[in-house]
Amino acid sequence: MFSISRGLLLLLVVSITAGCQTTSLERELAYNQDKLRExxxxxxxxxxxxxxxxxEQSGAISELVTIQQKMANISAxxxxxxxxxxSLMARPIPASAIIDxxxxxxxxxxxxxxxxxxxxTVTLTLDQQVLFNSGSAEIxxxxxxxxxxxxxxxxxxxxGRDIQVEGHTDSTPIKKTKxxxxxxxxxxxxxxxxxxxxLISANAADTSRIAAVGYGxxxxxxxxxSKAGRSQNRRVEVIVFPAR
Length: 244
What we know:
Layout: H1 2-90, E1 113-118, E2 121-127, H2 128-131, H3 141-157, E3 163-168, H4 184-201, E4 210-214, H5 227-233, E5 235-240
Parallel strand pairs: 3-4
Antiparallel strand pairs: 1-2, 2-5, 3-5
């Protein structure tokens, strides 16, 4: 009886021990499986990051190559432009290109005349009070002397250039002399033609290169509401164009 009990007890101990070992192994196996899953997830993330980095690197290399090509093209264009600039700088500057630098001192001292140059065009403004007597389109003695001096400068310094004589008035309608000039258009045109004839007579320019036009009150340079402004607007301008 005692032997049987002892045997049963031994069997029970062995069973319990085996059961404990099995439970421990299962826990260890489950732990290892969890770690394995974590490791696999980490591996997947790293593989994704690696693939992304490789794509970005490939894109960066492609962009770098494109930028290098653009820089090479720009450098080539710059070289061409620099060569063209050096060639242009080596060329002699024609007189027509430096008309703004022409000494306008030759016009100094001409009664009633103001000279200016802008963008290759010379504008000579003649005071109407010097050119004409009041209410007249005939050149006065004083105006005749001014135009003779002007013609000499045009002949000596601006030979071969196109010239346009422009007549201008203020905005006051014609009343007293309406029998001679219906409007300021006729008055400005008549006075421009009078100056034209004087310049041609003094050999200022070839007749094929000089013309006259009247603008009436359409191109004021001052305010017509004041006496001083109207006086400035009553003028004749001789425009000398750049050589062609």
